[in-house]
Amino acid sequence: MLVVNPSASPVPVTGHVTFAGQHGHPLPVSISNTPVLVNINNGPLQMRDVDDPARHIFQKHILSAIPSSSADRIFSSFVAPANNRLVIEYVSADVAVPARQKVIFTIVLSSFSAAVPSISQGAFLGGDEFIAGQQVRIYVEPGETVTMFIRRNASTGTWTPTDWSVVGYLVDCTVDAPCPPSP
User: Fold this and answer.
1) Beta-carbon neighbour count of residue 28 at 10 Å?
2) Buried b / exposed e across 34-48, counting CB within 10 Å, b at 16+?
3) Is the omega angle on the peptide bond into residue 67 within 30 degrees of 0, that is, cis?
4) What gap in Å lies between CA 19 and CA 45, rounded to an integer?
5) What gap in Å lies between CA 93 and CA 17, rounded to an integer?
6) Contact 131, 118 (CB under 8 A)
7) pLDDT (tens digit, 9 = 90+) per residue, 101-114?
8) CA separation for the pair 182, 85 (Å, rounded)
9) What is the largest CA-CA distance in the chain?
10) For residues 48 and 54, what is the distance between their CA atoms, to the nearest angstrom?
11) Contacts for 177 with CB less than 8 Å, ≥ 6 apart
């Protein structure tokens, strides 16, 4: 591997630098003058993106309660895991309402909300089916409540429970690895 910094951006290094290799064998590192060359001997060298902490996949499926026929909104919620920041990257939802009614899907946090555009799929079994799916980037702090909210433009007629899916990843926020600042 060869890492080269331009002369306008030198990397100041003093002293000796070593990396622990497999089974505790040291990997010698030599640093020369500009441009900086890093020679790795006795590889392989394991690397990771330090700006992108270890990710743990998060997938959540939520089916709302059966709504009352007189209700004009449904709420479903979950709490982000303790010691982890949740980064939501995709949400989807679907619901069936009486014919000619419309719906709005929204994700709500304590200080943030985002509407998820819905698309009518047409008439099914006497009602209208709506789906929503959106790529997002929503940062949820450890222990924060995420509420999925659906509202319709009427409060009559039977409608189905809302089927939500939330996909993203968790960032470890323990004492040993505090959460990086949210963007």
Assistant:
1) 13
2) eebebebeeeeeeee
3) no
4) 9
5) 52
6) yes
7) 999 999 999 888 99
8) 9
9) 76
10) 9
11) 53
Distance separating alpha carbons of residues 77 and 164, to the nearest angstrom: 10
Token reading at 168: 């993203």
Closest C-alpha to 138, from 51, 49, 48, 60: 60
Beta bridge partners of 177: none
Tens of pLDDT, residues 57-71: 999 999 998 888 888
Going by C-alpha positions, the residue among 149, 164, 144, 136 that lies closest to residue 59 is 164
Q: Which residues contact 105 (CB under 8 A, 6 or more apart)?
A: 93, 115, 116, 117, 118, 130, 132, 148, 149, 150, 162
The amino acid occupying position 144 is E
